[in-house]
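Journal club prep — side note

Before the paper discussion, L.F. wants everyone to see what a predicted structure for a comparable chain looks like in token form. Sequence:
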Amino acid sequence: MKHKKTYHSLEINKGDKSILVEGPIKKEALESFKMDDGLVAFRPPDKQKEALLKVIDFPESRLIIARDGDKIVGYATFLYPDPMERWSEAELDNLLELGAIEISADYRGYSLAGSILKVAMKDDAMEDYIILTTEYYWHWDLRGTGLSIWQYRDVMEKVMSAGGLEPYATDDPEICSHPANCLMARIGSRVGHDSVLEFNRVRFKHKYML
């Protein structure tokens, strides 16, 4: 399918901060921005920027950022599922995964994660896609936030719901390995019946769970 992308933005003003949430951004814009020092969840900030510069070249990729001036303080990526993941078995060209969402610790309290997802879903083209994300408690910053597993799970659900994602059942072994883990998804209004059936097929590999 042709991957149409329409830019949208949202300005957040709080105290003396004015943060712009925008995207999908182009590679030239990403190259001109620097990464905040607090973006260390996956790798050092400079290495994470290198990784983002690689994935932004993929035709289907979408990168939504939150920035304070020329400094990226949060971001989310949307990509086809990794070929090694269960979700890629669907072989749907309208299935995207929320591959990463990260907010600098210094910018928590600005509702940036939810705002990034809201901006992402403002693009009408997202109505043609199934968007999914997998949440595993071992990836959560429980120590940094001081939240319990279930408190963090509630926060994640609220954040994802800002982008219209909701919990979906699955028999995926990793997700089923702990009750706090979950699959969340958003099925766009123009997604065809066959695509939904294929998504359901991948969600459940054991018919007795349907």
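L.F.'s comment for the group: The chain has one domain: 8-209. Keep this in mind when we get to the figures.
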